[in-house]
Amino acid sequence: MITEIVADAQHKMDGTVEHTREEFAAIRTGRAHPAMFNKLLVDYYGAPTPLQQLATFQVPEARTVLITPFDRGAMAGIEKAIRDSDLGVNPANDGNLIRIVLPQLTEERRKEYIKLARHKAEEGRVAVRNIRRHAIESVNKLVKDKEIGEDDARGAEKQLDAATKKHTDEVDELLKAKEAELLEV
């Protein structure tokens, strides 16, 4: 019973760390990478569709992305989704593909992105702590219902504390790496 609760909590914490990693990938740095477009939805024949499903991505240079749609009818929608996004880029459409040249990041923009990264990291840490809290509540309910003893509950709490520390440290490492990447000129 306790091992299931702890294992479930650790699995959820792993998912939270992975989600935080994906959130960081979407934050733009000076270099181009296809993950920047993961969160973009394109209005494709009336249905919001992820951009990854509508096109291929190439990064021929450090600050250039080439997007080749599978269906040329989706070009206008893709272009509009990119222009309306918070990426701060202006796509150029040549009829066959969409070219995006990322501008150099200004110091002010870098600081905004670092602030955003810190906010995402805090959200990740809070989510991990909430998972811990819910798991401890489940363990305490088992104690209250006299299904397990106090010693078992304390042991489970120590395991949950260790897992929480491990996962919040992972989020902190991700943040540190992202900040270093953003400050790199």
**What is the CATH class designation of the largest domain?**
Mainly Alpha
CATH fold call of the largest domain: Topoisomerase I, Chain A, domain 4
User: Major beta sheet, specifics?
Assistant: 4 strands, antiparallel
Strand content: 5-15%
Number of helices: 4
Mean pLDDT: 89
Helix percentage:
55-70%
Number of β-strand runs:
6
CATH superfamily of the largest domain: Ribosome-recycling factor
Cα-atom radius of gyration: 22 Å
List the helices and strands and how they pair.
Layout: H1 2-26, E1 41-44, E2 47-50, E3 55-61, E4 64-69, H2 75-84, E5 92-93, E6 98-101, H3 107-144, H4 150-183
Antiparallel strand pairs: 1-2, 3-4, 4-6, 5-6
Relevant terms:
single chain, 185 residues, alpha+beta, Topoisomerase I, Chain A, domain 4, Gyrase A, domain 2, 2 domains, two-stranded antiparallel sheet, 58% helix
Description:
The chain is α+β, with helices and mostly antiparallel strands. 58% of the residues lie in helices and 15% in strands. It has four helices and six strands. It has helices spanning 2-26, 75-84, 107-144, 150-183; strands at residues 41-44, 47-50, 55-61, 64-69, 92-93, 98-101. β3 (55-61) and β4 (64-69) form a beta hairpin. α1 (2-26) packs antiparallel against α3 (107-144) and α1 (2-26) runs parallel beside α4 (150-183). The longest helix is centred in the last third of the chain and has 38 residues, at 107-144.
How would you summarize this macromolecular structure in one to three sentences?
With 185 residues, this protein is of the alpha+beta class. It has helices spanning 2-26, 75-84, 107-144, 150-183; strands spanning 41-44, 47-50, 55-61, 64-69, 92-93, 98-101.
